[in-house]
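4.2 Preliminary Data

To establish feasibility before requesting continued support, the project team ran the inverse folding procedure on a target of 145 residues. The structure was first converted into the token representation described in Section 3, and no sequence information of any kind was made available to the design step. The complete token record follows.
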């Protein structure tokens, strides 16, 4: 039970960081619409961009012109890892170092239980149920008594 509590706590902290960065106009890069929906359901709202809709070079260049805060949240499967590496190189060529640390932390928290961002909401709900926490409609965590 303590393992689940710790994992939930770590994910909640990470989500809170994402919310703050999104409020500071960071661009959150994901692979698809379902990733955006999952993050929205977890309370993360902001400027999302989908990396798989046009050429990577043009995609990164257009974001680099607009913003210096870039967070890459691709899946942690083979395709997502390659995409993250390629985008990191492109952004660095435009003088931007994207934040990939949040993605790495997320990967270490969920370990091998899920492999993509779109499964994150379901995973968090299961963790909350396993630890005796629930989520109210406004997204806040309430302890079940």
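Position-by-position output of the design step:
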């Amino acid at each position: 039970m303590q393992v689940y509590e710790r994992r939930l706590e770590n994910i909640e902290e990470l989500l809170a960081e994402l919310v703050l960065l999104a409020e500071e106009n960071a661009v959150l890069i994901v692979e698809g619409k379902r990733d955006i929906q999952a993050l929205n359901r977890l309370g993360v709202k902001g400027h999302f961009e989908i990396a798989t809709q046009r050429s990577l070079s043009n995609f990164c260049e257009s974001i680099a012109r607009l913003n210096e805060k870039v967070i890459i949240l691709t899946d942690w499967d083979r395709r997502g890892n390659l995409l993250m590496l390629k985008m990191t190189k492109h952004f660095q060529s435009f003088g931007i170092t994207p934040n990939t640390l949040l993605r790495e932390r997320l990967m270490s928290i969920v370990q091998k239980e899920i492999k993509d961002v779109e499964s994150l909401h379901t995973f968090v709900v299961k963790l909350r149920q396993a630890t005796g926490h629930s989520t109210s409609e406004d997204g806040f965590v309430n302890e079940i008594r």
